[in-house]
C-alpha cells in the first residue's frame, strides 16, 4: 500500500478532507466526537477521521482519530491551549476507548489563509504485542 504524504481539503465549511482509504465520520464514537466539538467550539470546519484501520486493532474499531477543527474560539489561544481544550471536551472518549487523538486546531483566519492541506498520520509502528 502506498502511504499518502499529504491530504488536501476540498471544502471550506463543514466539509470533508479528500481522503483515500480513510474512514470519515463512521460509528458512534466518531459521531460523539463530531457532536461535542461542533457544539462546544461552534466549528466553522470540522473533520473527524477514524484512523484505526492503520493500526493493529479489530476491524471496525474506533480507537485512533484525527480531528481537523476550525473555530473562532481558538482566537488568542496558543496551540497547546487549543489542544488542551479539545482534549478536555473529549475527556470521556479519551477515558473510554480512544487510544490516540491527533489534533489540527486552527482559527478561521488561519484556515482561510492556509492551503487546507493536512499531513497524513504515520503508519503504525507496532503495539498490541507486536
UniProtKB/TrEMBL annotation:
It holds the Pfam family BolA. InterPro entries: BolA, BolA-like_sf, BolA/IbaG_stress_morph_reg. It comes from the Eukaryota. Signal peptide: none annotated. GO terms for cellular component: iron-sulfur cluster assembly complex; mitochondrion. Belongs to the BolA/IbaG family. This is BolA-like protein DDB_G0274169.
Amino acid at each position: 500500500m502506498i502511504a499518502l504524504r499529504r491530504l488536501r481539503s476540498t471544502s471550506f465549511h463543514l466539509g470533508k478532507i479528500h481522503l483515500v482509504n480513510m474512514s470519515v465520520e463512521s460509528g458512534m464514537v466518531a459521531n460523539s466526537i463530531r457532536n461535542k466539538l461542533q457544539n462546544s467550539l461552534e466549528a466553522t470546519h470540522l473533520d473527524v477521521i477514524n484512523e484505526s484501520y492503520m493500526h493493529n486493532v479489530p476491524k471496525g474499531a474506533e480507537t485512533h482519530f484525527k480531528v481537523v477543527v476550525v473555530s473562532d474560539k481558538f482566537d488568542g489561544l496558543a496551540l497547546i491551549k487549543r489542544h488542551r481544550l479539545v482534549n478536555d471536551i473529549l475527556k470521556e472518549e479519551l477515558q473510554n476507548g480512544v487510544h490516540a487523538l491527533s489534533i489540527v486546531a486552527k482559527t478561521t483566519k488561519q484556515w482561510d489563509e492556509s492551503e487546507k492541506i493536512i499531513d497524513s498520520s504515520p503508519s503504525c509502528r507496532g503495539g498490541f504485542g507486536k
